């Protein structure tokens, strides 16, 4: 069972998670609320579960044994953004182009259905990005 979970839903924008100062929580930490999927086991080795992501949240207030988290979208713009953007003629996008795979090995594994966030949902702490 997961170490961290949703303890309480305060409102439609804030939840409480059992991840606090005691666990190394810091304001701004990123977390995922997940719907646990099937385990990925290859050659007897467990690689974890294929989880559906319900939400990504950020710690807004840290207490000793819990944190208040909310969904946060951070958008940063530099004053040079418009100048740079106007000079770029080629952009990179991700598409659903088919890969050249051995079709006999396709597993057709499905993500679990995503349900609304509820008390007890598993929480995954995302690694801190070092700049």
The whole-angstrom Rg is 19 Å
- Total number of β-strand segments? 8
* Sequence of secondary-structure elements: EEEEEEEHE
- Regarding quaternary structure, what we see is single chain
Weakly predicted, low-confidence segments = none
Strand residue content: 25-35%
Largest sheet: 6 strands, antiparallel, barrel
Helical residues, percent: under 10%
Please identify the structural class as seen in this structure. mainly beta
Q: Determine the mean pLDDT.
A: 88
Q: Judging from the principal axes of the Cα atoms, what is the shape? A: flat
How many individual helices? 1
Across the major sheet, the strand order is: 1-2-7-6-3-8
Span between termini: 32 Å
Features:
flat, mainly beta, six-stranded antiparallel barrel, two-stranded antiparallel ribbon, 131 residues
Structure, described:
The chain has 131 residues and is mainly β. A six-stranded antiparallel beta barrel has the order 1-2-7-6-3-8. A two-stranded antiparallel ribbon has the order 4-5. Strand 1 and strand 2 form a beta hairpin.
Brief account:
This protein has one helix at residues 81-87, and strands at residues 4-9, 14-17, 30-35, 39-42, 45-49, 52-62, 67-70, 122-125. With 131 residues, it is mainly β.
Topology at a glance:
Blueprint: E1 4-9, E2 14-17, E3 30-35, E4 39-42, E5 45-49, E6 52-62, E7 67-70, H1 81-87, E8 122-125
Antiparallel strand pairs: 1-2, 1-8, 2-7, 3-6, 3-8, 4-5, 6-7
